[in-house]
Design a protein that fits this description.
Number of strands: 0
Radius of gyration: 28 Å
Strand content: under 5%
CATH topology of one domain: 434 Repressor (Amino-terminal Domain)
């Protein structure tokens, strides 16, 4: 039997084929002497070094690792690469980890659906951590297809949860909800799975339903999650559950419960020293106090949250706190009209801090409302039209867009432009009908 070429021989052959010198291959990463030792089989490169060399030689790492010149389906080699990728992922070297997962997939048997599904899942997680959401979704979809018939229920449930979370982050709530529902269906049919997966999935589904304005269904799932969390003493998602319930009760105008759950969430985040989410809870508390008519307390909450966000270098939270403060001032202005001046001032500050497109839309909507109440109608139309343009086509902001068109219609009517008023009001009605057709009557 003829012995196949070893790693060093393959590296030398490929280098010469590409017309490269040993120094060319070494570059700034290695020494020429090190490359020479590898080619003479006096030194063996680490997988990390081999990955760099393979990249420079234009070949996959499997070309040099395998016993043949074509990729093999050696499961031990695949597992070795995936273990190395996992280690790199833990070290935060995410792109390197992704490269090794790709290499492992290239070597994996096409019929080994379980192993391939796990590799796609881990690769998707790495893309998610890099905030490359579209790539992450693509990998998790591939993982789902590989795992669906393999009975690997735990990883499959995590895959559906991961897909739902990514879709929710992209504003695709209508697609996220079925993904979480599928994860929950898997978990309920397989009670042997760890309890924390069940609680996490219930929480994720509840949050998605709340964002989709399906408040009663969301409340049901989240209360079950809360009960399980307290019974099992698994408090990993406890703050998320309480904050989401506070959000639901706020929108249902059950303000006492909204404040109570938000306060529980805030104290939980204080206990685990998560200042980011604690500030978000304080902003929510300010909004709830404003809805209860406790304007001075709302102002104190929101000013403190804005100051803390500024001190921590969190401009988005600062902008959000100022936006909610403007909402409070607008309602306060019913009794104290001078508060409209304060509202306009804080909205200008919020606009300078806000970097999110939808956030700018919300700020312009509020500014339009302030200008409308100050009878500066042309400026109000300008601000509201800008707000509509910023959130047009965003599925999670259809309710806001309907409100904007409704107010634009009202202003045009006041200006005597009946044709334009009718057009805006019809757009508003169409949006509300569209939302009702997706979710049923608003709850």
């Amino acid at each position: 039997m003829t012995k196949s070429p070893c790693v060093g021989e393959r590296i030398r052959a490929q280098r010469l084929k590409m017309g490269m010198t040993q120094q060319d291959l070494a570059g700034d990463t290695f020494t020429k002497s090190f490359i020479s030792q590898i080619e003479k089989n006096h030194a063996r490169p680490s997988l990390r070094s081999l990955q760099i060399i393979a990249s420079r030689l234009g070949k996959p790492i499997g070309y040099f690792l395998g016993e043949e010149y074509t990729p093999t389906t050696d499961p031990d080699k695949v597992d070795h690469l995936s273990m190395l990728a996992a280690r790199l992922k833990q070290e935060g070297k995410l792109q390197d980890a992704i490269n090794y997962y790709k290499e492992a997939l290239a070597l994996a048997d096409q019929d080994d659906h379980l192993r391939r599904g796990r590799l796609y899942f881990w690769q998707g997680e790495a893309y998610r951590d890099l905030e490359q959401r579209e790539e992450a979704i693509q990998m998790l979809e591939a993982a789902r297809q590989e795992l669906e018939s393999e009975g690997e229920w735990e990883v499959l449930s995590y895959t559906y949860n991961g897909l739902g979370d990514l879709l929710l982050g992209l504003g695709k709530t209508d697609l996220a909800i079925p993904s979480f529902e599928r994860a929950l269906d898997i978990i309920q049919n397989h009670p042997e799975l760890p309890p924390n997966i069940h609680t996490t999935t219930l929480t994720n589904l509840g949050i998605a339903l709340a964002k989709g304005r399906q408040y009663e269904r969301a409340e049901h799932q989240l209360l079950i999650a809360l009960e399980r969390s307290e019974a099992d003493r698994t408090y990993y998602r406890y703050g998320d559950i309480c904050m989401a319930l506070g959000y639901i009760y706020f929108h249902q105008q059950v303000l006492r419960d909204a404040y109570g759950f938000t306060n529980r969430a805030r104290h939980f985040y204080i206990a685990i020293q998560d200042e980011d989410l604690e500030i978000q809870c304080q902003i929510n508390q300010g909004a709830i106090e404003g809805a209860r008519g406790n304007f001075p307390r709302a102002e104190l909450h929101l000013l403190e949250a804005a100051e803390r966000a500024q001190a921590l270098g969190q401009p988005q939270h600062q902008a959000h706190a100022l936006e909610k403060l403007a909402e409070v001032y607008i309602e306060w202005a019913v009794k104290q009209p001078e508060k409209l001046e304060d509202a306009e001032e804080v909205l200008k500050k919020a606009a300078m801090l806000q970097t999110d497109t939808a956030g700018h839309g919300a700020i312009n909507q509020l500014l339009g409302e302030v200008l409308f109440r100050k009878n500066r109608l042309h400026e109000a139309i300008e601000a509201l039209t800008k707000a509509a343009g910023l959130i047009e086509g965003e599925p999670d902001h259809q309710s806001r867009l309907a409100d904007i068109y409704s107010r634009l219609g009202e202003i045009c009517q006041l200006q005597g432009d009946s044709k334009q008023a009718t057009e805006f009001l019809q757009r508003s009605v169409n949006l509300f009908r569209e939302m009702q057709s997706r979710t049923g009557p608003m709850q």
